[in-house]
Every structure is written in structure tokens, then in C-alpha cells.
Amino acid sequence: MEENIIMPCWRRLIGTFIDKTLVLVTFYLISLAISPFGAPNYLGIYAALFSTNPNNYDYMLEPCWEIDVFVTVFFVVWNLLYYILCEYKLGISLGNRIMGGQILDIEDNPISFGMIIQRALYALALMAGTYMFFHVMLKFPNVLVVISFFAILDSTTLLKGYNLIDKMTETQYTMRNKKTN
Predict the structure, then answer these.
(1) What share of the chain is helix, strand, coil (3-state, %, to 5)?
(2) pTM value?
(3) What does the longest C-alpha to C-alpha distance in the chain come to?
(4) Alpha-carbon distance 102 to 93, whole Å?
């Protein structure tokens, strides 16, 4: 039996960058398709709020908390759907598939749909916890919340080759071999 090779960190990080770019672009396009006139307004206000301290929301003309929460929730839902669909159809996210990877369980089997949902629920819990703690409780701007989320999630990727969700679900990113294409 051929042994699986752990996906190199640099490939995984490039794959993640590709995924985040795809998620952002498709999120913007879906927003425009749903609300061609409202989306640019909401997304423009959200972009302005991205580096604004939530303590200042009360002094702005727009209903900032409502826009902040609405866009954040919509983005999180799309983000989760992207990963669920990709992992279900491709066995890994599209960006990491392009970089030659696959997700396997600890017994070197492709992950099941139940495991895909479990990974998504862990990601959701981590996103919600990070947002609630840093943005709602500590009043950090969204830019710091996003940085905090990725620092919490991916710091071990740089050091050990796996992220927090991989550890919690006992999955691993490996390089695809010719038999598992």
C-alpha cells in the first residue's frame, strides 16, 4: 500500500489563499445577483466598517450593527456552503485541490459527508466564537477579528502542517496520488 504524503505547508497556504479569493469573489457576485442595487451599498458600508471600532457605530448615520451582522452572517453561510460543496464533490476545497491535495481521515480513507458536516460545524463554532468574543465583547474592528480567526485556526498549519479543525476532526491534508485522482 502506498503511503500518503502530508501536503506541504506552502501548498496548503497557497490553496487557502486561492479559496479565500474564490469565496470573496463569488460572495460579491452572489450579493449583486440577489440585490443588484442594495448590495453595493451594504458592501460599501461594510468595507468602511471593516476597520472601524464598533464603539463608533452609534455615531454613524447608517444602522451599522444591522449591516455588520447581516453581511457577516451572509458571508459565513456562503463560506460554509463553499467548503461543504467542494469537500463533498472534490474531497477537498477547490484551491487545495488545485495545489494537489486531498483530505483523508486518520485511517487514510476519504472523508465522509458526516465528517464534512462536522468540519463545517467546528468552523462555524470557531467563527461564531471569535466574532462574539473579539467583535461583540471586546469591540475589536472586523479586520482584527478576521486576523484573530485565521491566527487561531491556522497557526499550527505553519508549525505542524494541520489546523485546528483538522486536529478536532482527526483529518489530514495529503497529496493526491495517482490512484485517488
Answers:
(1) 70, 5, 20
(2) 0.88
(3) 64
(4) 8
